[in-house]
Fold ESYT2 protein.
Amino acid sequence: MWPFICQFIEKLFRETIEPAVRGANNHLSTFSFTKIDIGHQPLRINGVKVYTENVDKRQIILDLQISFVGNCEIDLEIKRYFCRAGVKSIQIHGTMRVILEPLIGDMPLIGALSLFFLRKPLLEINWTGLTNLLDVPGLNGLSDTIILDIISNYLVLPNRITVPLVSEVQIAQLRFPIPKGVLRIHFIEAQDLEGKDTYLKGIVKGKSDPYGIIRVGNQIFQSKVIKENLNPKWNEVYEALVYEHPGQELEIELFDEDPDKDDFLGSLMIDLIEVEKERLLDEWFTLDEVSKGKLHLKLEWLTLMPTADNLDKVLTSIRADKDQANDGLSSALLILYLDSARNLPVSYVLRGHPSV
């Protein structure tokens, strides 16, 4: 299947990733792939998990542990600056979810399949000519890691690749499903963090300037920095949409802000199934990958209601908590589907059809 998968990947690069990179930065507006050759080394599937509980009878959910290490030849250019670069090899490792739905009573039995990563995969790219690319005015503040984030985040929830297998399937509902719920994250405080800042050439151990990075799929939040404190209090609130469970997790990493490279202070991974089951969790969690430190979180699972019958009650409770979040807490979710556009003006810059 690999040669045909490569054809699909080339189409994905040109029709999905290329527009995503162009839209990420004004200076990348003329970015394009001039050659895409993924190579002969096929992708490996190291394990498969099939879910049998909490699954709709008209769908099959698979989690694939995928690994790809391959030599490839990918050339790209930014015409505006006459700049070219390339890729010699790519590595990608992560958990890809495949959803087969809806199941139907006629061949091919599956109406469509959807592909996405539950969290950002490990992605490594061996570039050629990247230095020239990053010398472009307006791009010198970028780095290869930012470019990797643009590419990998496009493959992570809520983004998904949906392939219809029969003509009558409702593709829009599969590509843009209604979220399963909203996760309200109260990022409260930490205790007994490691002191990473040192003085007198490392002889004296100091404090840290901790901050947190919170991820749910490709939704990323960053807390404020608390200066010189091993027991910081943030008292911040974030809200994230949850599209898939089982499988999605809340990921938190703590860092010490430094002028050069920020030091790692610990991490945490919480299965959202547990949060949904409990509805409200208010606990101290021990940080992983470090010798000490713990984090105080309050997590609320909010279920979406189809009508506005309880809206007044929700608004009342939110007004009581209005000081918790800088931009206020949410009371309802508006979902807007952009269907189509007509009679768009011709772009005078490109002398052709506009990019939309």
Observations:
- DSSP finds six helices and 17 strands in the chain.
- The two ends are 33 Å apart (CA to CA).
- The helical segments are 2-24, 130-134, 144-153, 171-175, 272-278, 311-320.
- The domain at 181-321 is CATH 2.60.40.150 (Immunoglobulin-like).
